[in-house]
Structure formats: C-alpha cells, structure tokens
C-alpha cells in the first residue's frame, strides 16, 4: 500500500492511514507500506534549496527549518499520542532536520545547486514522514519500523532526478522486506533510492507510486494499492471537468498511456514493475475507503467504451522546422532527433507531413530554447529555412484500447472539436491505436477536454 502526500498531509491524516492499514492487517493481510512526504513538503524543499543557492541567505534557511520542524513536531503529536513513542520519533526527526539545515546552509555558501544535491535535499520529505507513520503504528500496538528507499534495497542508476532501478533491486528488496511482513508493517520512503555508491537518488516527481510498484513486484504482492485523494483513475482530471467519473477497470497499457499523456494520477513508470508478475494495481481513495476505486489489470475483455479517458499535458511548446531543402534529403529526421537527444530535449510528440517540407515537434516548454538553439547550430547552412516556436501549447489525448480497429474515432474527435470551434494545431496517432493526441493552444485545452469527455459519454453513469 502506498499513501500519497495528501493522504499523509498532517498528523490526523497519518493516524487515519495507520488505522486504515491496521484494519486490513487485522483482516489477515500482510502489508508493506510506502509513503510520500507530507503534502507540499517536497515542493517547499526544492524551493528553499533554489532560494538558498540564488540568494545565499542563511536567514531564509533558518526560517524554513523552523517552519518544517514545527509542522513535523505537530504531526508527531497528532499521529502518535503516546509520549514515549513521540519522544523517540521527535528525536529521530530532529537529527534528520539538523542534517538538512547543514546541507542548505552549505548550499547558501557554495551558491550552487547540483542535480545530486537537489536529490539529497528533496529526499528529506519522505525521510521525515516515514518515522511518523511507523510511530503511529507503534502507538496502535502494531510492530513497525521505517526504511529509506536505499535501505529497503532500491538501488538505481546515477540519473539524479529521474533515476532508474537496477535489476538487482528486486532481489535485494525481497531479501530485506519479505521476512519482516509476518511480524510488522515496514514503512518505506517512496520516491527516494540510492545509487551503487550509496548516494541518494530520486525516481522523479510523483515517484512514490513507482516505489510501491517496485516493492510490490519484488515481494510478489497479491495486489499493489495506491491510496490517493480521488475515487480512482478518473475519465479525466476532475479539476478540469467536475463530471469526471472513476474508471472501474482499466488495462496496464491504457493506464500507462494515460500517465504518459499527462494524467497526474499515476507516475508514468509506476505500472512497469507490476507488469513483470501481472500484479493488479488498485487506485483507491484514502478518505472514502469503501469506494471500490480503479483496478488496473493485464488484459481487459473488450469493453463497450471505445474511449476510456481524456488527458492533457500542459507546459509544452511546439516548434515547426521547415524548408524546401528537406524534401527528398535523406537523414534530416535522424539528424533532428539525434541533435535534440544530445541536447537533452524531451520530445513529447512528432509529426511529419508526406510533403516532407516540415517536421513539427512538441517538447517540454522548459526545453524549447535549448531545442531551437541546437537545431539552428546543427543546420547552419541550407536545408532548414525556418524554425517557428510557439510556447503556449497543450497536448490533449483520448485514450482507450477499444479504439484499435474501430473506424471513425478520429472523425468523432475532430468533428466534435470543429463544432466547438477548437483549433487543432497538430495531430498524432501511434500505430498501436491506443490513443489519439493533438496539440491545441493553451487556452483551447480546457474546452477540448470538456467537449471530448462529453462526446464519448464519459460523464454518463454506466
Ligand atoms: P498522490 O496523492 O498519490 O500523489 P496525485 O496527487 O499524484 O496522488 O494524483 C491525484 C491527482 O491527480 C488528483 O488530485 C487529480 O487532480 C489529478 N488527476 C489528473 N488526472 C486525473 C485522472 N484522470 N484521474 C484521477 N486524478 C487525476
Ligand atoms: N514527494 C514526492 C513528490 O512530491 C513523491 C511523491 O509524492 O510521490 O514528488
Ligand atoms: Mg503523486
């Protein structure tokens, strides 16, 4: 079971989480628990690290540390309610916070923030949360102790900020965590891991879903449960369309497409480890545990729903490369992609018309400048005449395995958008036919999502 940031947002919520997990354990289940940081803490850590490196002001660090200490001390009191245990946990947290303060002050003096130090600083969110949850279990009479991701056995590559687990992690986690399950509930920090040299790494924002799936696969769990503040994976982001409904059953492939195409509900790689052993993944609401939620499974019998969900990626930018010289010149696309890969640009979407006179690309908005610069440098003379960037873009996708071999879906998508006067800038459909994605201007995205959600009847009870 993994609990997200909102689920463990404060001490009262942590208490609720401990009681909830205890209930399932009392019913005869063995549980390993993965936790996020208290909501907002990872963002605050990142912001303060950045401020420290840019302003060098140690007074800002002191203020932040005082707030963070207060927040976590209060959580300890509300979650535990047993003075002996509270004292032990508080002592442990104070040691961690002292280390963090030293690191932030070091960053003030150095005036630099490396990817490695960003991972180190941001690891403290989970490292402060996990001992409180273990303490809350202890106060309920349940044996429990906490582990960092590295202590649990998750060893990764050195790609700070987006590290990948090494194969050996699965046997290591099994060796370290499985034997504990019949005597206690181990509480494992989500999101953080370590590399082979023992240096802290992170699995990317929202990475505690990924941790849960790695641990679940390692111990061959019967199910992996991700507890959040929504009733499951919904037909679209409920913040954009209030009529969004939970999807009862969805396949691994559909869930992966959904998260790749921006549905913030799942970390994009969270399903991969579960697939190894075909472990079902459930998404449930911590605050409404009686609601069944969503179950993500290997194969789903073809359902009547052609389209399961609509997603949106914000903060992307589009640029168009054109020039008559591109026609018939072999290797232009290869050069474009190699250049962008070397510049570290993440490409979200690609489209090339058969006239070959232009290639359109959608990239992360923060990568646009380096992308344009790299392409200009690579094609200094000739072939490419024009590069037109457009910053205010969103990518919308309709996702559903039922679209494969169902004619007319694209017609319905673009017909509905046309009727609603949403201007489509670029279109892409992979040959897997599990999604159709398209770029619209940033202002058109909300309308596009609402229109398609309605067009495919996703707002209707089934
Ligand atoms: P966690 O607490 O586990 O970190 P998240 O915050 O990552 O959970 O995911 C839940 C949030 O994702 C919701 O608050 C919701 O706004 C957003 N969201 C976006 N798209 C979807 C979707 N299709 N289904 C459910 N939630 C979505
Ligand atoms: N705390 C981390 C984040 O905010 C990981 C997570 O919540 O899943 O990104
Ligand atoms: Mg998340």
UniProtKB/TrEMBL annotation:
Coiled coil (UniProt feature): none
Keywords: Amino-acid biosynthesis, ATP-binding, Kinase, Nucleotide-binding, Transferase
Record-annotated membrane-spanning stretches: none
A GO term from the CC aspect: cytosol
The EC number(s) this enzyme carries: 2.7.2.4
One Pfam family this sequence matches: ACT_9
Entry GO MF terms: aspartate kinase activity; ATP binding
Family: Belongs to the aspartokinase family.
NCBIfam families found in the cross-reference section: asp_kin_monofn (TIGR00656), asp_kinases (TIGR00657), PRK06291.1 (NF004938)
Full protein name: Aspartokinase
